[in-house]
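Quick check before the chapter quiz. The format below is the same one you will see on the exam, so make sure you can read both the input and the output lines.
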Amino acid sequence: MHHNKKSSGRPSRASVYEQIDGAMQQLTTEFGGLPSPQEAESIWSSLWVHEAHHSTALEGNTLVLSQVELLLAEGRVVGNKELREYLEVTGYAQAAQWVYGQALEIGEWKGGDLLSLTEIRHVHAVALGPVWDQSPHPHATEQERPGNFRQHEIAPFPGGMKPPSWVEILSALVDWVDSLEQLETLPNLIEGLATAHASFERIHPFLDGNGRVGRLLINLVLIRLGYPPVIIYKRDRVKYLNSLRRADGGSPDALGELFARAITDNIYRFLAPRAAGDDALVPLTALATVDRSVTSLRAAIERGRLKAQKGEDGKWRSSRTWIAEYVADKHRRG
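Here is the expected output.
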């Protein structure tokens, strides 16, 4: 197989798409498809927290991951950030939770359509509702509240692309939703999704929140097609924006590759715990449960009550065996 001779040593784009196919086949063999949030709760929970953090951070939110974890796990507001920033994360997390819930009903969405206009508006209303009530867009009319399309013209983007007039939004979105039905017939599904994502951002149907909603909608489509969600990390912000501009110019390959790598990484997050034995060291996210959050596990490590090792990447890892010892000791102390 041909690989690009780059100093990073990363596989070529073609190889990345082959990896995602192989990983999906393995996921089907191991789980019968994408596990539901009930079957792999700790992994879905970790994806949820990271997506809420990184997707809002792409738009300028300054909460750090530990603050987001506490906010979503315990409702605790830590730090001295503006209330708006906490509400941005809360709203996004609520919308992502609804999106992830679709993994329970793959292929059973209303009317058989992959996505509907009503759902687009619903995702926007949930994601933007909390922050809008406290800090509405300064130029918004009452008719442009969360869940409603913009009624303003938008200035051209930095790259020169100008969104359509607000009077054309409904027609453009109808065409966009219809185009999603062709995704599974395309030679490359992931690049088709990249093209669709860039197209949605060009339509820019809302006065605010288009980036966040666009990423949520792509994940809704992915989950309904049996794939895990995409998380674009804040460290990749420049790469993501440049890839979007290239897609605007008709070249979705870079954005498709970014999506494919993210999807493959998340497929392996589901596969890794299944492959690891009880003594294997795995990230805390693979060991967390509803009653035992990542934050509480980290606290137990810091108190010296849970055995763990810190990797070169700075992340703690423990094992099922060590977790069992910690739980048993905790019960004895209780």
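If your answer matched, good. The chain has a mean pLDDT of 88.
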